[in-house]
């Protein structure tokens, strides 16, 4: 995050959801278009900050500080610190505004999860009605992005997010599909070749094998009815860390038998959590 972005997040962002707010007037009551909360300046913080700046300025003038840049830096920096510590805004009312699906997708796009160019909102509305998307925070919008299109092509709605069914191991090929999906959401960072697997529920054996950087890796998977052996995700995480240390797999809140897994940079993960979209590193 650039310095300008950090400053904007402190002084131009909603205190409830941290989304930048278009403040067309310097003084008054502001409304966040994302969460609908209303807030105003914390006048106590600003007042104390101005008083501190004036006192420091008076002290410096008495001491005959002749350097103009130094004079203003020594006045302003303590004032800014006071405002940040006391918070520049105070919330009046928590949000109640209904945020449209389009607005939710725009926010998620800025945070790292974009609807693929081949699709628009109409594709997501094939799975759930608009009202459901707009009543469920960001959960259902994320689920919609993690799904695949309805039809023969089965293209993914989002390039770096997948909705995984944790009870999908029924036949040979199922573990290979998971490996290809995990590779796909890294968008080229993790390369696995010659992917093969075998699932034999009758003899209670299953394995997954692939080439990584010229080395053949074979994983013996635990057979537990049709449930995925979660240990394979730990291995994928370790391989991604070796292939691209800047990226990480992340997991969102589990939804019954389904789990959302994404791939973002570590900086993006921090920003997601700052916006209270609680993704956790996949381990």
Summarize the structure.
With 283 residues, the chain is an alpha+beta fold. The protein has helices at residues 3-11, 43-62, 68-86, 101-111, 121-124, 130-133, 139-146, 174-184, 231-243, 266-274, and strands at residues 29-31, 38-41, 89-93, 161-165, 193-200, 205-212, 215-220, 247-251, 258-265, 280-281.
Structural overview:
The protein is α+β, with helices and mostly antiparallel strands. 38% of the residues lie in helices and 19% in strands. Helix 2 (43-62) packs antiparallel against helix 3 (68-86). The longest helix has 20 residues, at 43-62. The model is unreliable at 1-10 (pLDDT under 50). A four-stranded antiparallel β-sheet has the order 4-9-8-10. Strands 1-2-3 form a three-stranded antiparallel β-sheet, with no helix packed on it. Strands 5-6-7 form a three-stranded antiparallel β-sheet, with helices on one face. A hairpin with a 6-residue loop joins strand 8 (247-251) and strand 9. The two termini are 25 Å apart. It has two domains: 3-93, no CATH class; 101-281, no CATH class.
């Amino acid at each position: 995050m650039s310095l300008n972005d950090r400053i904007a997040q402190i002084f131009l962002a909603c205190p409830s959801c941290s989304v930048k707010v278009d403040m067309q007037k310097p003084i008054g009551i502001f409304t966040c278009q994302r969460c609908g909360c209303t807030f105003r300046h914390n006048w106590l913080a600003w007042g104390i900050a101005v008083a501190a700046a004036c006192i420091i300025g008076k002290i410096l003038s008495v001491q005959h500080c002749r350097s103009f840049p130094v004079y203003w830096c020594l006045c302003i920096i303590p004032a800014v610190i006071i405002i940040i510590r006391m918070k520049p805004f105070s919330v009046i009312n928590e949000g109640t505004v209904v945020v449209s699906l389009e607005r939710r997708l725009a926010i998620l796009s800025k945070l790292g999860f974009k609807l693929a160019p081949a699709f628009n909102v109409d594709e997501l509305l094939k799975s759930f009605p608009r009202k459901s998307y707009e009543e469920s925070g960001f959960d259902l919008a994320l689920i919609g992005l993690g799904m695949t299109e309805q039809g023969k092509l089965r293209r993914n709605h989002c390039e770096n997010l997948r909705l995984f069914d944790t009870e999908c191991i029924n036949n040979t090929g199922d573990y290979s599909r998971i490996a290809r999906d995990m590779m796909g959401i890294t968008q080229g960072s993790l390369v696995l070749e010659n992917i093969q697997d075998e699932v034999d529920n009758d003899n209670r054996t299953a394995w997954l094998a692939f080439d990584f950087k010229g080395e053949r890796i074979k994983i013996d998977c635990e057979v537990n009815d049709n449930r995925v052996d979660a240990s394979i995700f730990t291995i994928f995480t370790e391989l991604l860390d070796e292939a691209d240390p800047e990226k990480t797999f992340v997991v969102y809140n589990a939804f019954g038998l389904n789990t959302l897994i994404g791939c973002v940079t570590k900086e993006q993960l921090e920003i997601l959590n700052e916006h209270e979209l609680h993704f956790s590193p996949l381990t």
